[in-house]
Amino acid sequence: MALFSGAASARIIPSVSLSSSSRAFFSLSSSSSSLECLRSSPRISHLFLNQRRAEVRVSSGGYGTVSAPKSFASDPDQLKSAREDIKELLRSKFCHPILIRLGWHDAGTYNKNIEEWPQRGGANGSLRFEVELKHAANAGLVNALKLLQPIKDKYSGVTYADLFQLAGATAVEEAGGPKLPMKYGRVDVSEPEQCPEEGRLPDAGPPSPADHLRQVFYRMGLNDKEIVALSGAHTLGRSRPDRSGWGKPETKYTKDGPGAPGGQSWTAQWLKFDNSYFKDIKEKKDEDLLVLPTDAALFEDPSFRVYAEKYAEDQEAFFKDYAEAHAKLSNLGAKFDPPEGIVIGDSPNAGAEKFVAAKYSSGKRELSDAMKQKIRAEYEAIGGSPDKPLQSNYFLNIIIIIAVLAFLTSLLGN
Ligand code: HEM
C-alpha cells in the first residue's frame, strides 16, 4: 500500500516541525517517568501524537531519520489524474450509477456507536474484499470494482477508500448533479478480517420501511433530511432482479442500455441527475418506473414527506441538501491522513463542455435521420407532413361523412 511510500507529494509534513519535536522526544527518552508526566500535560500532549506518527513512519517506511518526508494516505496529484481517468471510464461505460452505489456501500456500514477504527465501519476501502462483496446487499458491485481496478493499479498513491468516494462523486457531477464538497486522504483497511459484519446496509422491503430507514441511517449519524436527500441518488440507475431481486428484467427505458441493457429504473432519464426521482414517485404515473417500499416511505412518513415534497418542487433545494449529505456520507468512519483531509479542487478543464450522461438516457433518444425520413414518407403517403401533423379526428370525420351519406342514400332509396 502507498501509505508510507516516498513518492513525491504536494502535501508533505514540514520536516522542520517534525524533526524538532522528535529530537525533543529523543533527548527526553532517558527518563520514562518525566515522559509520562509530559505526555499527560494537555498543553503539549499533541506533540506526543506527532512523535507516534514519526515513529510509525520510521518503522514502516524504513527511512533513516524521523524527519524523512512522507506521503499522506493518497497523493493529491494522483487523485486529480485518477479523476480524469474516471471521467473517461464514465464516457465509455455509462457506469455512473454503479460507481455511486459502490461509494455509498463502502461508507454506509458506519456505526457511530463504535469508536475504534476500523471496527466502526465506513469509508475505509473494505468493500474491495471478497468477503464483503459477497454480502447480499452488495450483489453486483464486484462489477464496479472491476471497472475501477485498472485505475487503482495505475495510481498506487490513491487508496481504495478514496478511489471509491472519488468515483462516486465524479459520477454525480458528470451526470449533471451538484458539485460536491469532497475531501480525500482516507486510509485503507489492510485485510479482510477488518470488514464489517453483514447486515449494516438498508433493506429495500422491510416490514416497516420508515422505521427501518431511521434505524439504519440514525446509526450512521444521519437525520431525516439526509435520508430523503440521499435517497434522491436513485434518480440514477436501475435495479436488477438478478442482483437485488427488485425491479423488472427490462423496461422501455432500459432495454437498449446504454451500458448493459435491462433492469428497472426509478426515472426515465436514468443517467441524468435531477429531481425527477421525487416527481416520479409523487405522480406514480408510469408502471415502467420503480418505486421500492423504502422509496414510497419518503412520501408516506410525515417527517420524510416534508423534504420529499420540497425536493419534488425545488431542484435547487434538493441539489444543495444532496451535496452536503453526500459529502458527509463519504466521510463516515473514515480515518484521514492528514487529519484535515486533502481538497483537490476543480478539474483543469472544468470550464470545458461537459459530458452530459443525460443525453444517453434510454427512452429519450434523438431519432436517427433514417427514422425521420421513414416517418416523413409515411405522413406524405396519406397527404400529411410531420411538420403539420394531421388533425387527430381526420379519419373519424371521413368515416362520419361516409356514414351520413350512406344513411341519406338509404332514406332517399326508400
Ligand atoms: C435508503 C435506503 C436504500 C435502499 C433500500 C436502497 C436499495 C437499492 C436497491 C435494491 C438497488 C438495486 C440494486 C441492483 O439490483 O443492482 C439500488 C440501486 C442503487 N442505489 Fe440504492 N438504496 C438506498 C439508498 C441509496 C443511497 C443513500 C444511495 C446513494 C447516495 C443509493 C444509490 C443507488 C444507485 C445509484 C443505484 C443504482 C445502481 C445501478 O444502477 O447499478 N441508494 N439501491
UniProtKB/TrEMBL annotation:
Where it sits in the cell: the answer is: Plastid, Chloroplast
Judging by the UniProt lineage, the source's domain of life is: Eukaryota
Entries under InterPro entries matching the protein = Ccp1-like, Haem_peroxidase, Haem_peroxidase_sf, Peroxidase_I, Peroxidases_heam-ligand_BS
- Where does the chain cross the membrane? 394-413
Signal peptide location in the record? Answer: none
Q: Which UniProt keywords apply?
A: Calcium, Chloroplast, Heme, Hydrogen peroxide, Iron, Membrane, Metal-binding, Oxidoreductase, Peroxidase, Plastid, Potassium, Transit peptide, Transmembrane, Transmembrane helix
The GO cellular component terms are: chloroplast
GO BP, one annotated term: hydrogen peroxide catabolic process
Reactions catalysed according to its record: L-ascorbate + H2O2 = L-dehydroascorbate + 2 H2O
Annotated ranges, domain Plant heme peroxidase family profile:
99-361
Biased region (Basic and acidic residues) positions are 239-255
Query: Which prosthetic group or cofactor does it need?
Result: heme b
Return the CDD domains for the record.
ascorbate_peroxidase
Q: State the family it belongs to.
A: Belongs to the peroxidase family. Ascorbate peroxidase subfamily.
Q: What does this protein do?
A: Plays a key role in hydrogen peroxide removal.
PANTHER family listed in its UniProt record: L-ASCORBATE PEROXIDASE S, CHLOROPLASTIC_MITOCHONDRIAL, THYLAKOID LUMENAL 29 KDA PROTEIN, CHLOROPLASTIC-RELATED
What protein is this chain from? Answer: L-ascorbate peroxidase
Q: Supply the source organism for this entry.
A: Sphenostylis stenocarpa
